TrEMBL record:
InterPro entries given in the database record: Ald_DH/histidinol_DH (IPR016161), Ald_DH_C (IPR016163), Ald_DH_CS_GLU (IPR029510), Ald_DH_N (IPR016162), Aldehyde_DH_dom (IPR015590), Aldehyde_DH_Superfamily (IPR050740)
Pfam family name, one: Aldedh
Protein name: Succinate-semialdehyde dehydrogenase / glutarate-semialdehyde dehydrogenase
Positions of the catalytic residues: 262
Length: 494
């Protein structure tokens, strides 16, 4: 066990620092460790085991051994384990939130909200674990019967990102447990402690040894590729960049794995003249500044109709300028640091490029000097169509605003991207709302609201934002296979 230390030597939490393999916390085979940094200060929080190829193989061995028994464990028992994990997560909200803030940077209020979001996945799938159903019907020919049922797909590989380190783990693990799957989970190297704490909770909740195995590593590709190509693995779920997702899909094709990919986004935020502007501004702040803009669902491009574009831009700039930027543990802090210097440099380059093309900075637009990776909340007006900031995922607190004239124009602009994760639309016209939501090429739409995340709803995108869904009944289906039995019984129908 390795204590994670916050300010002035105060112990925040005793979190396992090893690899979880077969129910035991162990060191990496070669004893290597990787350090975890506080992005608000640049200081080292602690170290965790740095898994090598052999450790990954051991984790998959454990998952494979555990699968036979776990797939037949009573659904009610799997439900009870998830329910207990939910209760433990809620009980430890403050500890988990502080841990997440220290390793990822988000303000404590947002970290608490993420703990609640993560816990809700555990609760939702606790309720779904006992509702895995098939069907029994007559053959349409009148001879025999048709019987179908669902079975766990098999051992799974789950790869989670750094931006929502607890919730993304729960969103994958909970349906896998509900379905009866075993798994190997690899969290992001920047934020391993949240996943290790979640694994500790699930172990305490009674999850059998070997069902959940966690490997932390600085060499993700080297450790995970042999596992993806292993015939014992039957499912791969990844949340991260489109670039990495493409490579993983290619590797998964060798064993024809069942694959879920939640990849990059370039969300359009569309405001029509008839919208409730106060509501649209509230939605914009949520859609843009949740997690400091480091979210795949973050509003990346703001298209505002001509009649309200100037007003909207000015008022959004006022709200952004009023945000308090600082370490997430500070009082009244609204925006924390970006995850690392590489991400801050990317954001700064996007802003510099668009300003060189003539865009106007209404507020922000600069790095913040001092320790940590802070960037000013930024609003840009007069953004040209070809600017990189409209075509690349920003992953930072930058809002570029582009005016538009008519519905056809904005639909074309919103769909003019390789991505299709989420879009946001603000209008009071119900006919327009239906027309535009049905025309937008995205897997999700926020209609008059700036947040779409919901444990009971299917989260996922189209085009190069990926495929498959997480959350809701659809998320459980990702971990199940359907078996059909043609039954020569019952005789002809009377």
């Amino acid at each position: 066990m390795l204590p994670v230390v916050a300010d002035e030597g105060r112990v925040v939490a005793d979190v396992p620092s090893g690899l979880l393999i077969g129910g035991a916390w162990v060191e990496a085979g070669d004893g290597a460790t990787l350090q975890v940094e506080d992005p608000a200060t640049g200081e080292i929080l602690g170290r965790v085991a740095d898994a090598a190829v052999g450790d990954g193989a051991a984790a998959l061995d454990a998952a494979d051994r555990a699968f036979g028994a776990f797939r037949t464990l009573a659904p009610r028992r799997r439900s009870e384990i998830l329910r207990r994990a939910y209760e433990l997560t809620v009980e430890r909200t403050e500890q988990l939130a502080l841990l997440m803030t220290l390793e990822m940077g988000k303000p404590l209020a947002e970290a608490r909200a993420e703990v609640a979001y993560a816990a809700n996945f555990l609760r939702w799938y606790a309720e779904e674990a006992v509702r895995v159903n098939g069907r029994f019907t007559s053959n349409e020919t009148g001879q025999g019967r048709v019987f179908t049922f669902k079975q766990a797909v098999g051992p799974c590989l789950l790869i989670t990102p750094w931006n929502f380190p607890l919730a993304m783990g729960a969103r994958k693990i909970a349906p896998a447990v509900a379905a009866g799957c075993t798994m190997v989970v690899k969290p992001a190297a920047q934020t391993p402690f949240s996943m290790l704490a979640l694994a500790q909770i699930l172990t305490e909740a009674g999850l059998p040894d070997g069902v959940l195995n966690v490997i932390t590593t600085s060499s993700s590709g080297r450790v995970m590729e042999p596992l993806i190509r292993d015939p014992r693995v039957r499912k791969l779920s990844f949340t991260g960049s489109t670039e990495v997702g493409r490579r993983l899909i290619a590797q998964a094709a060798e064993q024809v794995l069942k694959v879920s990919m939640e990849l990059g986004g370039n969300a359009a935020f569309v405001v029509f003249d008839d919208a409730d502007i106060d509501l649209a501004l509230d939605g914009a702040m949520l859609a843009k500044m949740r997690n400091g803009g480091e979210a795949c669902t973050s509003a990346n491009r703001f298209y505002v109709q001509d009649g309200v574009a100037e007003q909207f831009a000015e008022r959004l700039a006022q709200r952004m300028e009023a945000l308090v930027v600082g370490r997430g543990t500070g009082a009244n802090v609204d925006v924390g640091p970006l995850i690392d210097e590489a991400q801050r440099t990317k954001v700064d380059e996007l802003v510099t490029e668009v300003v060189s093309r003539g865009a106007e900075v209404l507020t922000g637009g600069r790095r913040i000097d001092g320790p940590g990776y802070f960037y000013q909340p930024t609003v840009l007006a007069g953004v040209p169509d070809q600017a990189r900031v409209l075509h690349e995922e920003i992953f930072g607190p930058v809002a570029p605003i582009v005016p538009f004239s008519d519905t056809g124009e904005v639909i074309s602009k919103a769909n003019g991207t390789e991505y299709g994760l989420v879009s946001y639309l603000f209008t009071r016209d119900i006919d327009r709302a239906f027309h535009v939501t049905e025309s937008l090429e995205s897997g999700m739409v926020g209609l008059n609201q700036g947040i779409v995340s919901n444990a009971g709803a299917p989260f996922g995108g189209v085009k190069q934002s990926g495929f498959g869904r997480e959350g809701g009944p659809e998320g459980l289906e990702e971990y199940l296979e359907t078996k059909y039995v043609a039954m020569n019984v019952g005789g002809p129908l009377q």
